[in-house]
Write a structure and sequence with these properties.
- The complex is a heterodimer.
- Chain A is built from 22 helices and eight strands.
- Chain A is an alpha/beta fold.
- By secondary structure, chain B is an alpha/beta fold.
- In chain B, about 30% of the residues lie in helices and about 20% in strands.
- Chain B has helices at about 15-25, 60-65, 75, 80-95, 150-160, 185-195, 195-210, 230-235, 250-265, 355-360, 395, 400-414, and strands spanning about 5-10, 30, 100, 110, 115-120, 125, 135-145, 165-175, 215, 240-245, 270, 275-285, 285-295, 300-310, 320, 325, 335, 360, 380-385.
- In chain B, the strands form six sheets. In chain B, strands 1, 2, 11, 12, 13, 14 and 19 form a seven-stranded mixed β-sheet that branches. A four-stranded parallel β-sheet of chain B has the order 8-7-9-10, sandwiched between helices. A two-stranded antiparallel ribbon of chain B has the order 3-6.
- The two termini of chain B are about 20 Å apart.
- Chains A and B meet through helix 1, helix 4, helix 15 and helix 16 of A and helix 6, helix 9 and strand 11 of B.
Chain lengths: ~400, ~425
C-alpha cells in the first residue's frame, strides 16, 4: 500500500520541515528542505536545475516526519541528488562511503585483512590522509570485526525449532558489529525461534542512495526484492536489526523504485524489537529476565521514527526488571549514515549532535541504548559513553 | 497491539493538550501523530474568543463566551470547563518554568508584524504588553535580512492606535549572517540561543536604544520554552521587551510545542510519529481499535476511548470531495451547506464568516459525534480541535482556544 506519490504539489510551503530540520538548525549554507525539496522539484520537472546546497541534506528524514501533508521531502532530495550526478563524476570519497560492503569484502579476502584495514584506517586518520581523501579524520572509521557475523553464525549451533525467521544482517552488523547479530540469534533462540540467514542478501543500498548512486542501489533493490520474495513465499518473516536497512527495504524501495513484489515484501519485514514486542502482545514473549540494576538512556534513531511504529525498544526494555530506561528525546544525533563521515560535514554533524551529547552528559548515565549502528558510533564519539543495541541488553537479562 | 486507556489521534495543540489532561487523570495514553502539527510554526498565543459573528470585538473572552451560538463548540463545552481548561494550561506552563499570562476576564490586544493589534487571551511573558503603560518611548527593532518583518511598518501603523500613541524609533540589529538562505525568525532565535549571539545583540542594542524604553521585537527570543534570553537582554539593555505576532515560522508556537512534548514525556505518554491512521474497527457503536497504514503493513491500536484531534481540511482530519465534506477515519457525518457553491463567501474582507470554516463534525455536550438523526454516533470517540463544527477561528479569533478547551474537555470525558 503506497502512501504517497512523489508529488511536490502536496507541499503547502508551511515551513514545518524547516523548523524541524537538524541541518538547517546548525548551518545557514543549506537552503532548507522546503526550498531544496518540493519547491525546486517543481522547477526540475520542466528544466535541469542543480541546487548547490542540496549536498547538505543528510537524508535523516526529519522533514518527512514533520510534513503535515505527507510529502517525502528527503526522497525528492535524493532523487535530485542522483540526477545531479548524471553529468559529473563522483569523488573517490563518495565511492568509498557508498560502497562499504565492497570495501569490507576486499578486506575479508586477505588473510588478516580486517586487522590490516583497521591499521590502515587508524594510520590514515593519524597521518591526515583521511582528510585528504575527504573523509573526516577527527572520528574513527568503524573498524572491521575480526570475524564477520556470517562466519560466526555458520559456526554457531542453534537449537532447531519449528518456528523460524529470516535475518537480514546488513553490512554494518555483518562486518563491523557482528555481536548485535549474535545477540539477536540468542534472543530469538530464547523465544523458541530458529534463525535463518540468507547469504545472498546484498547491501540494502541506503548509503548509495544518500551519495547519489541511485541506479546502482536499484540493482541492489532488485536482488534483495527477489530474495525477500522467496522467503515471503515460504511464509517466514524477515527481520532487520539495523534501522536504516529496515527503512530502505520496506519504505524507500517503494518511494524510489518500481519493482514487482516490493509492497508485499514490506508487509513481511519486521524490526527486531518490533517483532519481539508483537510476541509480548500475544503473551508469547519469554519474560524470564534477570534484573539489570542500571539506568540507561535510549536514543531513538530518526530512521526508526520515520517508520511509524513508535519506539518498540523502549517498550521492550521496560519489561526488564530493575532497568531504568529514559528516552533521550534530544533529536537527531547528526551522523545520518555516512553523512558525518564526510570531512566537510563533520562539524555540522557534531553541531547537530550537541543537544543529544549534552543531554547524555546531564543524565549521568554511562550506557546509551540505540537501535542504529551509526547512531551508536556518533554517540560513543560525541558523548564518550558505552553504547549498546537494545537486543544486547535483552540477551544480558536472559543469560544472567 | 498494545492496549492504552486512551488513544489520541493527532499531535497538534488539541491532541497534545488532551494527552496531557488524560495522563494527569492517571490514564495510559498513546498519541498517534502524522506530521508535527501547525503549533510548530504558529504564534503560540491562546486566542480564546476575540469577536462575535458580527465582527465586533468582545470586552473580554468571558463576555463573548456568554454570547456564542448554541452550535459553537464553546456552547457544548460550557463555561466552567473552558475556565478549567485555562487553569490547567496556566498551571502546566507555570510548572514547566514557562508561565503564560492572561485570564478570561481580560481581552489582551497584542501587536503584530503588520503594526495592527489582535485580540487574544493567554500569552507568554514575552508577549505581555503591560510594560507599554510605563513608558512613552518605543523602539521597533528589526533585524537585517529578516524576511517579512519591517519595523518601520510596525511603528507607523501602531502609533495610530489607542494605547500605542508614543514616540517611536527604529533600531536595527545585524546578526551578521553572511551568504546562505533567506533569514527567518528561526535563524535569529538560534543566533540568540548562543552566548556570542546574545552578547553581540546586546552590544548593538546598547549603542542605539536608550534605557527605560520598550523594545518591540519579532518573535526571536530563543527557541527554548524558558525566559532566559528575554531576561538577559532586558537586564543588559535596561529596557522591557515585547515580542510581536509574526508570520510562520514563528518561534512562540515552537517553544510551546517543545514544552508540551517535554511534559508528555515525563508524564509517560507515548507518541508514535508517522502513524497514518486510515480506519477504525467499530462494533455496535463502540470503537475497538484504529488502524494505521504505512508503507509496510497495517497496525491496530486498541483502547477504551479515542480522541480525534487530527485537524480540519488543512490538517487532513476533514477532506473536501466533490459536493461533500468527509471525515475519513470513522466516516462520521460532516455538517456542510448542501450546495458547494455556498461553502465560501467570495467577499474576502466583508465582515462575515466563511461557511467552509464552520464545516465540521457535530457533537453533543460530551464532545461525542452525532449521527445524521441527532443520536450518538459512537459512544467512546470524542472530537477535539479543528474538525469540530460551528466555528470560524480565523474570523472570531479563537485559534488555539477551541483546541485547548475541547482537548481538555474530551480528556475529562474519557
Amino acid at each position: 500500500m503506497k502512501i504517497q506519490h512523489n508529488n511536490p504539489d502536496s507541499c503547502t510551503a508551511c515551513t514545518a520541515c524547516i523548523a524541524q530540520c537538524p541541518v538547517t538548525a546548525v548551518t545557514r549554507k543549506f537552503r532548507g528542505p522546503k526550498m531544496v525539496g518540493p519547491a525546486l522539484e517543481r522547477m526540475r520537472l520542466s528544466q535541469e536545475d542543480t541546487e548547490p546546497s542540496l549536498e547538505y541534506c543528510s537524508n535523516c528524514k526529519n522533514c518527512d516526519i514533520a510534513c503535515p501533508s505527507g510529502v517525502p521531502i528527503s526522497t525528492l532530495n535524493m532523487l535530485a541528488r542522483a540526477k545531479s550526478f548524471k553529468n559529473r563524476s563522483h569523488s573517490l570519497r563518495d565511492d568509498m562511503l557508498a560502497h562499504g560492503e565492497k570495501m569490507a569484502k576486499l578486506a575479508e579476502k586477505i588473510p588478516g585483512g580486517a586487522f590490516l584495514a583497521n591499521l590502515g584506517m587508524n594510520l590514515g586518520g593519524s597521518l591526515g590522509l583521511m582528510n585528504l581523501a575527504g573523509i573526516a579524520g577527527e572520528r574513527p572509521l568503524p573498524s572491521y570485526a575480526a570475524e564477520s557475523f556470517l562466519r560466526q553464525f555458520k559456526k554457531f549451533k542453534q537449537q532447531s525449532c519449528p518456528d523460524k525467521v529470516v535475518f537480514y544482517p546488513g553490512c554494518f552488523i555483518n562486518y563491523n558489529d557482528p555481536q548485535v547479530g549474535m545477540d539477536f540469534v540468542a534472543v530469538m533462540q530464547a523465544n523458541g525461534y530458529e534463525v535463518i540467514v540468507e547469504e545472498d542478501f546484498v547491501c540494502c543500498g541506503s548509503p548509495m542512495v544518500a551519495t547519489g548512486y541511485l541506479d546502482e542501489a536499484g540493482e541492489q533493490a532488485r536482488t534483495n526484492t527477489e530474495l525477500l520474495k522467496k522467503w515471503r513465499q515460504q511464509g517466514y518473516p524477515v527481520i532487520t536489526c539495523c534501522t536504516s536497512c529496515g527503512l530502505m527495504l520496506k519504505q524507500e524501495y517503494q518511494e524510489l523504485y518500481d519493482i514487482e513484489g516490493m509492497a508485499e515484501n514490506a508487509r513481511n519485514l519486521y524490526d527486531g524489537c518490533e517483532f519481539l514486542l508483537l510476541l509480548a502482545d500475544k503473551g508469547k514473549l519469554n519474560t524470564h529476565f534477570a534484573a539489570l540494576e542500571e539506568k540507561v538512556l535510549y536514543h531513538a534513531p530518526c530512521h526508526l521514527r520515520a517508520q511509524g511504529f513508535g519506539l518498540p525498544a523502549l517498550d521492550l526494555l521496560e519489561l526488564i526488571p530493575g532497568l531504568r530506561v529514559e528516552n533521550a528525546g534530544a533529536g537527531c544525533c547528526g551522523i545520518a549514515g555516512n553523512y558525518g563521515f564526510k570531512a566537510d560535514k563533520y562539524d555540522i554533524s557534531m553541531a547537530i549532535g550537541e543537544k543529544l551529547f549534552q543531554r547524555i552528559k546531564d543524565s549521568g548515565v554511562d550506557t546509551v541504548v540505540s537501535d542504529c549502528g551509526t547512531c551508536r558510533l556518533q554517540i560513543a564519539h560525541g558523548a564518550k559513553v558505552e553504547t549498546v543495541h537494545p537486543l544486547t541488553l535483552l540477551r544480558r537479562a536472559y543469560e544472567r | 497491539m498494545r492496549q492504552s486507556d486512551v488513544i489520541v489521534i493527532g499531535g497538534g495543540f488539541a491532541g497534545l493538550t488532551a494527552a496531557a489532561v488524560a495522563a494527569k487523570r492517571g490514564k495510559t495514553v498513546t498519541v498517534l501523530s502524522k506530521g508535527v502539527g501547525t503549533l510548530t510554526i504558529s504564534g503560540g498565543t491562546i486566542d480564546l474568543l476575540g469577536c462575535g459573528s458580527d465582527g465586533r470585538p468582545f470586552a473580554s473572552p468571558a463576555a463573548g463566551l456568554a454570547l456564542v451560538d448554541p452550535d459553537h463548540p464553546y456552547s457544548k463545552i460550557g463555561k466552567e470547563a473552558v475556565q478549567a481548561a485555562v487553569d490547567f494550561f496556566l498551571d502546566l506552563c507555570e510548572t514547566a518554568g514557562f508561565p503564560y499570562r492572561g485570564n478570561l476576564q481580560e481581552m489582551k490586544w497584542i501587536p503584530t508584524a503588520a503594526g495592527t493589534i489582535k485580540p487574544t487571551c493567554l500569552v507568554p511573558k514575552t508577549m505581555d504588553t503591560a510594560p507599554l503603560a510605563e513608558t512613552d518611548m518605543v523602539y521597533a527593532v528589526g533585524f537585517h535580512c529578516l524576511k517579512d518583518y519591517y519595523p518601520h511598518i510596525v511603528a507607523k501603523n501602531l502609533q495610530k492606535l489607542p494605547g500605542y500613541d508614543k514616540t517611536y524609533h527604529i533600531a536595527m540589529v545585524d546578526p551578521r549572517f553572511t551568504a546562505g538562505r533567506d533569514v527567518s525568525a528561526l535563524d535569529i532565535a538560534r543566533w540568540l540561543d548562543t552566548e556570542s549571539g546574545r552578547q553581540d545583540c546586546i552590544e548593538q542594542l546598547r549603542n542605539t536604544v536608550k534605557p527605560g524604553a520598550v523594545l518591540l521585537l519579532p518573535p526571536v527570543l530563543g527557541t527554548r520554552p524558558d525566559y532566559q534570553v528575554l531576561q538577559e537582554l532586558e537586564q543588559a539593555v535596561r529596557c522591557r521587551i515585547i515580542e510581536t505576532v509574526a508570520l510562520p515560522p514563528a518561534m512562540t508556537g515552537f517553544r510551546l510545542r517543545n514544552l508540551l512534548l517535554d511534559h508528555l514525556k515525563s508524564a509517560g505518554v507515548r507518541i508514535v510519529e508517522q502513524a497514518f491512521v486510515a480506519k477504525a474497527i467499530v462494533e455496535n457503536g463502540r470503537c475497538l481499535a484504529v488502524v494505521t497504514q504505512n508503507s509496510d503493513r497495517e497496525r491496530s491500536y486498541s483502547a477504551q476511548a479515542f480522541i480525534l484531534a487530527n485537524g480540519g481540511f488543512y490538517g487532513g482530519g476533514l477532506l473536501a470531495e466533490p459536493g461533500k465534506a468527509v471525515e475519513p477515519i470513522f466516516h462520521l457525518p460532516v455538517k456542510a451547506p448542501a450546495s458547494q457553491t455556498q461553502w465560501s463567501n467570495p467577499r474576502l474582507f466583508s465582515r462575515e464568516q466563511q461557511p467552509f470554516a464552520k464545516i465540521g463534525i457535530a457533537v453533543d455536550s460530551t464532545l461525542r459525534p452525532l449521527a445524521e438523526n441527532g443520536s450518538l454516533a459512537l459512544e467512546n470517540v470524542y472530537i477535539a480541535g479543528r474538525s469540530l463544527a460551528g466555528y470560524d477561528f480565523c474570523f472570531e479569533k479563537s485559534g488555539n482556544g477551541v483546541a485547548l478547551a475541547s482537548g481538555y474537555q474530551a480528556a475529562m470525558m474519557v
